[in-house]
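Protein modeling request. Please complete all fields; requests missing the sequence field cannot be processed.
Requester role: graduate student
Desired output: 3D structure, C-alpha cell encoding
Chains: 1
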Amino acid sequence: MAETFQVAPDKMWSLSPGEMERRWSLVRHRLIERGLDALVIQSYEDKSGGYVKWLTDVPAGYPRTVVFHANDWMSVVDHGAHGEIRVLDGRDPKQPGVGEIISNWGFFNAHYNQHLNAADTIGILRKRGYRKIGLVNGGGLPHRFVQDLSEEIDIVDETDFIDGLKARKSVEEIGLIRRTAAAQDAAFEMLLNHVKPGMRDFEINAFLDYQLQLRGAERGTYIGHSAPIGKPATFAYRHFQGRTMAKGDHICVLLESNGAGGLWTEIARTICFGRASSELRDGFELCKASQLATSQWCVPNAAPAEIFARYNEYMTSHGAGPERRLHSHGQGHDMVERPLIREDETMSLFAGCNLAIHPTHATPSMFAHICDNFVIDESGHGEFIHATPKQIFEL
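Delivered output (395 residues):
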C-alpha cells in the first residue's frame, strides 16, 4: 500500500506519516511471518486504551475495534449511526491508514446490544474469508466480544508482541514524550504561583487541566488531597477534593497527562503552605534517593522482578515498608503500560523504555512521594526528563 494520507491540520498533535508507517510495517511483517490474516484490537477509552491510538493515531472514546489487515487498509468498528459504512480507502487525514469505518451503538452498559461490535467485526472477517487472526489483550476485553469472536475463527494471542512494540519508543516518540514532560514542568511552575490557602483541593485539578490542555493535553488525571502537617496528605481523586487548604497545610500533587502525540508522562511533588516537618523532609529524601537508585538499575535487559526486589530491600534497609503497589511502570499512549516494575512482569527493559518512577514512603503521620519520567537511551544509559527541582516546595 502506498502512503497516501497526510497529517490532519486540525489535530492538536499528530504523529508523522513516517511514524505510523513504521508501526504498521512491524505489525504487517509479524502477521505474514505468523500466517495470520489480520490483527484485532479494541479499546474503549484513552487513559488505558493505547492499543487503538498506537495503530490509528485516534484515541478511543466509546468502544472502538480495529481490524488490521495483513494486506489492506484497516477496518474500524466505532460508535455512531447503526449500520452506517464510510469508505475511506486510506485517504482521510483524520483517520490515517483506515479503509472503512462501520458504525453501531454498542454501549458496554446496555447488555442487550453488546453483541454489536463482535457482529460487525465478524462480518468483516467473513467477507474476506479469514481463517486465523491475532487478538491483543483478550483478557481485558468484554467477555461477549471475545466469546463471539472465538466461536467464529481461530485466534492467536499476540499481546506480548504488540506490548513489546509499544514499549520500545522510536526517536520521534521520545521527542514527543519530552515535550509532554516539558509541558508538565511549565504547568507545575505556574501552579506554584497560583495556589494559595483558601483554595479547595479540586482547584489545583482544574488549574492544571486548563494549563495542560492549552499545551496539547487531551486527557489528564490530577490527584491530591491536602492535610495539616503531621497528618498524611495522601492521594485522592476529584470526588474527595473538596477540602479547603489552610496555612500550615500541605498537599502532594500528582500530575498525570498526555500531550504531544497523545503520549503520557507524570510528575509528583509536595507543596507546603509553611514549613515541612522533619519527618516529611526525611521521608521525601528517602524517596528521592530510592528513585535515583531505581533509575540506576533500569538498564537494557534488566528484569523488572529483580528491580522490584532490590527496591524493596533498599526501602526496608532504610526503615521503610516494602512496596505493595506498582513501584514504577512504562508510559506511552497508555498512562500505565508495560513493562511494570513488579514481581510478576515478564518483559525485560530495553533502550527506548519510558518509565514513570514513583517511590512512596508513608507512616500514620506522613506521606512522602516523588515521581518523574526516566528514558533509557540507545546507549543503554538513561536520564530523567522532567526539569522541575526534586524538592518540597514551601510557599
